[in-house]
Amino acid sequence: MSAVVQSASTEAEENLTDGFNLIIDALKLNGLNTIYGVPGIPITDFGRMAQAAGIRVLSFRHEQNAGYAASIAGFLTKKPGVCLTVSAPGFLNGLTALAHATTNCFPMILISGSSEREIVDLQQGDYEEMDQLAIAKPLCKAAFRVLHAADIGIGVARAIRAAVSGRPGGVYLDLPAKLFGQVMNADAGKKSLVKVIDAAPAQIPSPDSIKRALEVLKSAKKPLIILGKGASYAQADDAVRAFVEKTGAPFLPMSMAKGLLPDTHPQCAGAARSTVLKDADVVLLIGARLNWLLSHGKGKAWGDAPKKFIQIDIEPKEMDSNVEIVAPVVGDIGSCVTALLNGMGGNWPAASADWIKAVTTKRDDNIAKMAPKLMNNNVPMDYHGALGVLRTIVKERPDAILVNEGANTLDLARGIIDMYQPRKRIDVGTWGIMGIGMGYAIAAAIETGKPVLCVEGDSAFGFSGMEVETICRYKLPVCIVIFNNDGIYRGTDVNASGSSDPAPTVFVKGARYDKMMEAFGGVGVNATSPDELKRAVNAAMDSGKPTLINAVLDPAAGSESGRIGNLNPQSKLKKK
What we know:
This protein has a six-stranded parallel sheet with strand order 3-2-4-5-7-6, sandwiched between helices. A six-stranded parallel sheet has the order 15-14-16-17-19-18, with helices on both faces. It has a five-stranded parallel sheet with strand order 10-9-11-12-13, with helices on both faces. It is of the alpha/beta class. The protein has 23 helices and 19 strands. The chain folds into three domains: about 1-190, Rossmann fold, CATH 3.40.50; about 205-360, TPP-binding domain (Rossmann fold, 3-Layer(aba) Sandwich); about 375-560, Thiamin diphosphate (ThDP)-binding fold, Pyr/PP domains (Rossmann fold). Helix content is about 40%, strand content about 15%. The relative contact order is 0.09.
């Protein structure tokens, strides 16, 4: 009798599942096979079990960096990047990256363990008590909480669909600790899972909007096409290139759209940005927004010439956000560009020869003026000499991923380093924030399998520098170059009070960041000249070993806030 009871008991246990396994099964069912996060209560066992089930689990040193990794994974793959954090402080650390993903239109899901609802709602002081769902809602595209194991499948499905459909963005998924251990029948659990079908369906533009846009574009004497990172995310590379080339118009790539067409393409106006913005009469925006990065479409940067704007965006509310859009085209970029291309017919009028000549002349003149600066061999290095070296290396290795952040390091690299393939340059994005470097570099290596060159200002590196241990632990092919000029913007500021404290923007003189990498088993190099920098970067890219190069720059190199110093308010009072 006891044997029969024991057998029945064993059979019943074998037919059970729990929240841990259902979450893992739901992610795998939908092809989400990588998790970026930081282990801890209450999600430690979940990470172990996910890894055992075949999900790649990347464990970081700080949740914000794991979140940035998940966000750029979403951009590179068009699938939601998944970040896993503990409750309260860990959730808050990840929330910065979630808000960043939403602002930049990157699909991402932040999954956080949380305290028990019955205690949180009565504010009785649970471990890391916080109403995380309420906090997350204003900062992301959607937020959901799952309380019952039977709803895990639906919860994950809703998060995926919200993250990638329409305008992509960040989604928060709140999982209270009790949920992980909830038990239910395995067959019922399997049936409760949802495989998301057509998560981001095509949004077809109206025929009238296509006709209107083509009529405005055809009327242009001085057309300009601006490519934004939305165009890069869309992965409609062939259609975008064919359309741009058929128009014959100059194009201006925003930083993360560089490489959709090579920066060396004859129509590229990247080196004539000021000229084309001021003088164009019709501007077509493809996946770009008229935010601060484009001076909101008005003001001094845009000159006095009257302009008509055509805009392609999947979000109707984006239209007319700063200036009148005379030809809005609402839909996904791939469908919209294809429709425009089809509507152009066989004989599209060539762009004005005078306009093309004016843009080309200005571009070539600016490139010629820059060339000698990029060839200098100054010691200590300046930004141009160091970036000239990296420019050549990227040209020789166009398949590598370039991660870039800093003030001067970002602003100058954006204009100096040419890109040749799409989605090979990733940087600070819409907010212009610092701290994305190591998270982006790790995710880029994981998601693409390509070597990564990460070019950092010394200040920017400080936000995520401890993740060099993560890079070494996973043996990733990441080469970090730190432009070290001893401070924020530059290392020459002086404390006006006369005290012994350094000025707020000054760091330790002669810091050796390369020693950090050596501490974790990676390769560290101190480069003091362009020649040394070139040899070190090539060796790192050839070897695929985690490498950090401390590129010693003149402390006086750099300017206040890079090229956006105008955003930094200046005191009108005289210093005493």
